[in-house]
Structure formats: C-alpha cells, structure tokens
C-alpha cells in the first residue's frame, strides 16, 4: 500500500474570513494560517507569481483537515456555471458527520449557506442534506440515527 492517509482537502475561496466563519460555525477549529509564495509554489501550481493566504481548519476528532486558500495573485478564474449543479464533473462535495443536522443547518444559514435540496432520511440510519458553502462548494451533512 502506498497511501498513508488522506491529509486534507483544499478549497479555493474568495472571502477567507467568511469561509473561516462558515467552517467554525460547522464546528471546525482554526489550526493556523500563513501567506505562501515563492518559486516552489509557482512550480507546484504551474502558475507564475503565486501569492496565496492559506488557513488550516481541523475537525473536532483531530483527524480531518480542510485547507482554505485565498489567491492574491494570480486573480481567481471563474467557472461556468458559477453555481455548478450536483451532477457537474469534478469534486462533488465534502461530507461531515454532525451531531444534529437541524442545528448545523441553523448555524450555517446564519453564515449565508442555503440547502441545495431537502433534508432526507436514509433507511433509518442517517439524516442527510447538502448545503452550499464557501465558493459554492457542496457541504454534505450526515446525522447518524443509530
């Protein structure tokens, strides 16, 4: 086996403080942040003059991490459509198991998030929903019912 672990998922955002507030409301903890630039960053990204601010957020269990990245240079590239539907190619969602879907929805709505569809129950095992998070990513929430 060559993989040791999944280290983190990275999300490019346009408003870093709003993204931090969103994931803090979800229950994640700010782990640290820093500006990053230099030739190694240009080379790994295949871009020139990269200047980013990154923030790491950690889940309460200490195992999951999310990197929030704000590009200062080069400027952000918009995708079409800006709010991709759930069946768009690429990264679909980031899922979090939460204590209460209803409480999580309330906290995230206070940060501007909206449901993509409805809250549903799956086989008496989970309550599930999708919400639009920072940069219009889909944040999936799952509440265990067992």
List keywords for this structure.
single chain; 146 residues; alpha+beta; 2,3-Dihydroxybiphenyl 1,2-Dioxygenase, domain 1; 2 domains; five-stranded mixed β-sheet; 38% strand
What does this protein structure show overall?
With 146 residues, the chain is of the alpha+beta class. Helices cover 18% and strands 38% of the residues. The chain has two domains: 9-73, 2,3-Dihydroxybiphenyl 1,2-Dioxygenase, domain 1, CATH 3.10.180; 93-144, 2,3-Dihydroxybiphenyl 1,2-Dioxygenase, domain 1. It contains three helices and nine strands, in the order βαβαβββαββββ. The strands form two sheets. Strands 5, 6, 7, 8 and 9 form a five-stranded mixed sheet that branches. It has a four-stranded mixed sheet with strand order 1-4-3-2, with helices on both faces. A hairpin with a 3-residue loop joins β7 and β8 (126-132).
Sequence stretches where pLDDT stays below 50 over 5 or more residues: none
Outline the biggest β-sheet: 5 strands, mixed
Binned strand content = 35-45%
Report the strand count: 9
SSE class: alpha+beta
Domain count: 2
**Under CATH, the topology of the largest domain is which?**
2,3-Dihydroxybiphenyl 1,2-Dioxygenase, domain 1
H/I helix tally: 3
Report the average pLDDT across residues: 94
- Give the CA-based shape: globular
Can you write the helix and strand succession as a string?
EHEHEEEHEEEE
What is the structure about, briefly put?
By secondary structure, the protein is an alpha+beta fold. 18% of the residues lie in helices and 38% in strands.
